[in-house]
């Protein structure tokens, strides 16, 4: 449904560098990356609001690279909703329909149907200033859907919401996607949003595409150290591979499953896959590292131990009982264990 080929945009100090992406008809696709990575520029290129320096944009099989926004049949939902303050919810939703040749009565019927789907019926006469963040976002979504676009583009739809409304809007987005069958391209810096909503996605950093795959594969098998960190595999180490042995963090491990053929690369582990204990605590076959606790950190209900091993630092999730019963503190000598199949390997060419 959307096909970007070698999309390039050059600004002083930033280049969106030959991005090629394919979003299939009817799918929910998440474009992920941290702030300033170029996600919004990609959305704006699809919407026709930013002119590429090179490459092509195709929507629904048509080359739209040089078409104005109104001829692309895509709707962009902005992060700040961009609702008209002087119009009611219903009027906001109906606003764009006249430009799409939708007759008023039919438009009103469709708009009310959408308000119903989005749980906004009782608010149809309210103005935006009297809506919560989640209600504004749903109104903006209804307005985008009201013109029957081929594609909905969502710019960080959940980022400004508190956790309660976030969960609610996630469910709404999922429901609307499933019931309308419209193609959704969402930009987000939060991998959790992508995990819950999207089937496929892509990760972008500094204007370059790092990976494009199913969200499940990006989570399980990140292609680059950046993507690994982005999906929570935050222990990433330079590693050497030779004769069936993988060496990182000052330890050499033999007999690991599925060792890659390359000689240097990166090995990565999720903090939740690294356990603190004594050598005898770990199941047979687990790999062991020894290190010194640098610090124990608490974040809400979660505790992490940051441990020096060789010339690297490993982070392991620990529970409160472990911290107290073992007296884990800065300077403690600890043994860490992990299962070989949890170690993920990546080649060097980032
Ligand atoms: N019109 C412009 N002129 C110059 N630089 C621009 C322009 N628009 C965007 N940029 C730069 O391009 C880079 C990518 O911007 P973009 O808005 O796509 O990032 P993003 O990934 O969406 O970030 P965020 O999550 O913070 O919105 C940024 O460094 C930004 O400053």
UniProtKB/TrEMBL annotation:
| InterPro entries membership | AAA+_ATPase, ABC_SmlMolc_Importer, ABC_transporter-like_ATP-bd, ABC_transpr_FbpC, Mo/tungstate-bd_C_term_dom, NA-bd_OB-fold, P-loop_NTPase, Transp-assoc_OB_typ2
Keyword Hydrolase assigned to the entry: answer is no
PROSITE patterns given in the database record: ABC_TRANSPORTER_2
Q: Give one Pfam hit by family name.
A: ABC_tran
Where are the bilayer-spanning segments? Answer: none
List GO terms (cellular component aspect). ATP-binding cassette (ABC) transporter complex
Q: What is this protein called?
A: ABC transporter related protein
Q: Which organism is it from?
A: Pseudodesulfovibrio mercurii
């Amino acid at each position: 449904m959307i096909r970007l080929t070698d999309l390039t945009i050059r600004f002083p100090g930033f280049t969106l560098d030959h991005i090629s992406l394919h979003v299939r008809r009817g799918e929910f696709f998440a474009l992920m990356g941290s702030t300033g990575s170029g996600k919004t520029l990609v959305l704006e290129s699809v919407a026709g609001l930013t002119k590429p320096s090179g490459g092509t944009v195709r929507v629904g099989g048509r080359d739209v690279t040089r078409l104005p926004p109104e001829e692309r049949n895509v709707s962009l939902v902005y992060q700040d909703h961009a609702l008209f303050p002087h119009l009611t919810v219903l009027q906001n939703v109906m606003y764009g329909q006249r430009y799409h040749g939708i007759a008023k009565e039919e438009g009103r019927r469709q708009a009310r149907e959408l308000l119903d789907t989005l749980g906004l019926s009782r608010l149809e006469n309210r103005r935006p200033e009297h809506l919560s963040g989640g209600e504004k976002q749903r109104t903006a979504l209804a307005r985008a859907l009201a013109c029957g676009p081929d594609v909905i583009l969502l710019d960080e739809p959940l980022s400004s919401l508190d956790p309660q409304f976030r969960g609610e809007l996630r469910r709404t987005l999922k429901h609307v996607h499933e019931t309308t069958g419209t193609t959704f391209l969402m930009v987000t810096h939060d991998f959790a949003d992508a995990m819950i909503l999207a089937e496929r996605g892509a990760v972008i950093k500094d204007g370059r595409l790092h990976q494009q795959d199913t969200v499940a594969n990006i989570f399980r098998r990140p292609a680059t150290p950046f993507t690994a960190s982005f999906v929570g595999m935050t222990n990433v180490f330079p590693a050497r591979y030779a004769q069936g042995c993988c060496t990182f963090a000052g330890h050499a491990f033999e007999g690991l499953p599925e060792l890659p053929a390359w000689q240097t690369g990166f090995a990565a582990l999720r903090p939740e896959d690294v356990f603190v204990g004594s050598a005898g605590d770990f199941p047979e076959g687990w790999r062991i590292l020894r290190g010194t606790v640098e610090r124990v950190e608490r974040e809400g209900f979660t505790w992490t131990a940051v441990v020096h091993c060789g010339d690297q630092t490993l982070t392991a999730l620990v529970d409160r009982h472990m911290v107290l019963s073992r007296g884990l503190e800065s300077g403690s000598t600890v043994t860490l264990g992990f299962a070989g199949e949890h170690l993920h390997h990546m080649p060097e060419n980032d």
